[in-house]
Amino acid sequence: MKGFRRLRVIIAVLVLTCVTLIVLTVREDSGGPLRGVGNAIFGPLERGASAIFTPIGGFFSDLGTWRDSVDRVKALEAENEKLKALVETSAEDRARVAELDALLKLSAAGQYRMVPAQVIAIGPTQDFAWTVTIDAGSRDGLGVDMTVVNGSGLVGRVVSVGEGTATVALMIDATTSLGGRIAQSQEIGIVSGTGAQYELQMQILDPLAPVDVGTAVVTFGSEGGRPYVPGVPIGVVTEVKGAPGQLARIAILRPYVDMSTLDLVGVITEPPRVDPRDSVLPGAAPVPSPSPS
Amino acid sequence: MIRKGALVALFVLAGVTLEVCLFARIPLPGATPDLVAVIVVSLALAFGSRTGALAGFFGGLAIDIAPPADSPIGVSALVLCVAGLLVGLASDPGGRSALASIGLAAGACAATLLVSAIVLGLVGSPRVEWANMGVLLVTTAAYGAILAAFVIPLTLRVSRIGQPPVRI
């Protein structure tokens, strides 16, 4: 029975530790020293692991047949496989180049200064949190509450930063809430994540404002550009709930960014000096660069 | 003792890294395969309730603090600690069938998901979504069973390294 007494003591200590930790961290926004420890331990591990797991695919070329010089068909097949693998990897490279290109265009249109980063880990669904790890951190100039975008629009915000990694809360996460502005009509509202992948909610502040399905919504911008810089495309209105005049009018938005295929993102380290208004939206005319006078 | 601690640490580090870097990236329907829960179950089966509880605590703590986690720290630690304890108490070290172990792992995956959601709800997390809980529970149990078929034999084999062979 001595074993059981020791077990009881261990369990009591562990459970009390857990409850204390929960109580201490439940109201915390950016994580405490423990998150720093987690970043220090798992940041390098995740960077290494993603280097191994990301290039999976197009790798199963036939190694057993090329030695057989008599059978020309097999040699040709092997060559074919190799070429196919080459084509596949170059397709991936092209996709990355296109993504970088889109990011560059966005940053040029909005005059943001950004740091590119790659998604290396994704939070498990069981956690109910829509968060990802990216492979840039404090040594790349990242800080908490910076805006994260990709070539299509807003991705989310940085919630905690390690030395070489950072955690990003995606805008579809249920804790997200940001100011949004409907393009053209300039109506503002509060956009919040629903936890669903293809749906955002926008509470429109003016009960009488006309809201059309199909109009775009961009970020309104926070003070000092943190956590959200102004003018980043958020999504398109797909549905409006509630008639004009009703107090709680909710517009349902579909985000521009597909969160399931996130790969390359940009972290805006320096907000634009002037609000780019609607110029970053897809299809918008490029802003004429201010000419020196 | 040191060997056991090192083994638990190795399994926990590998489990957490694989879960967020590999399994979460595979576009599977429903839940993410809960490798850490399966590892805790397998360690509890191999070493008993005390190691199970400790492995659950440290495994859950690792999941709670490893990026990109953003939930209150301690929820997974609490849930997995209790899961490890119960699995260790429920299993009879002498005779356990493979099927019962796999069933235990699947049940533990579903139970930890459900209890985590309840605890998160109780501490006021706005994220918990009850609408598709059924899908999550069924898929996490299924993935847990598949993972357990590989992880439990591996853990049992590794746990016997360096120990005298069991005489029957």
Automatic annotation (TrEMBL), chain A:
<dbReference type="InterPro" id="IPR055342">
    <property type="entry name" value="MreC_beta-barrel_core"/>
</dbReference>
<keyword id="KW-0133">Cell shape</keyword>
<protein>
    <recommendedName>
        <fullName>Cell shape-determining protein MreC</fullName>
    </recommendedName>
</protein>
<dbReference type="GO" id="GO:0008360">
    <property type="term" value="P:regulation of cell shape"/>
</dbReference>
<dbReference type="InterPro" id="IPR042177">
    <property type="entry name" value="Cell/Rod_1"/>
</dbReference>
<feature type="region of interest" description="Disordered">
    <location>
        <begin position="273"/>
        <end position="293"/>
    </location>
</feature>
<keyword id="KW-0812">Transmembrane</keyword>
<dbReference type="GO" id="GO:0005886">
    <property type="term" value="C:plasma membrane"/>
</dbReference>
<keyword id="KW-0472">Membrane</keyword>
<feature type="domain" description="Rod shape-determining protein MreC beta-barrel core">
    <location>
        <begin position="127"/>
        <end position="268"/>
    </location>
</feature>
<dbReference type="Pfam" id="PF04085">
    <property type="entry name" value="MreC"/>
</dbReference>
<keyword id="KW-1133">Transmembrane helix</keyword>
<dbReference type="InterPro" id="IPR007221">
    <property type="entry name" value="MreC"/>
</dbReference>
<feature type="transmembrane region" description="Helical">
    <location>
        <begin position="7"/>
        <end position="26"/>
    </location>
</feature>
<dbReference type="InterPro" id="IPR042175">
    <property type="entry name" value="Cell/Rod_MreC_2"/>
</dbReference>
<comment type="similarity">
    <text>Belongs to the MreC family.</text>
</comment>
UniProtKB/TrEMBL annotation, chain B:
<protein>
    <submittedName>
        <fullName>Unannotated protein</fullName>
    </submittedName>
</protein>
<keyword id="KW-0812">Transmembrane</keyword>
<feature type="transmembrane region" description="Helical">
    <location>
        <begin position="97"/>
        <end position="123"/>
    </location>
</feature>
<dbReference type="Pfam" id="PF04093">
    <property type="entry name" value="MreD"/>
</dbReference>
<keyword id="KW-1003">Cell membrane</keyword>
<keyword id="KW-0133">Cell shape</keyword>
<dbReference type="GO" id="GO:0005886">
    <property type="term" value="C:plasma membrane"/>
</dbReference>
<keyword id="KW-0472">Membrane</keyword>
<dbReference type="GO" id="GO:0008360">
    <property type="term" value="P:regulation of cell shape"/>
</dbReference>
<feature type="transmembrane region" description="Helical">
    <location>
        <begin position="135"/>
        <end position="156"/>
    </location>
</feature>
<feature type="transmembrane region" description="Helical">
    <location>
        <begin position="73"/>
        <end position="91"/>
    </location>
</feature>
<dbReference type="InterPro" id="IPR007227">
    <property type="entry name" value="Cell_shape_determining_MreD"/>
</dbReference>
<feature type="transmembrane region" description="Helical">
    <location>
        <begin position="39"/>
        <end position="61"/>
    </location>
</feature>
<keyword id="KW-1133">Transmembrane helix</keyword>
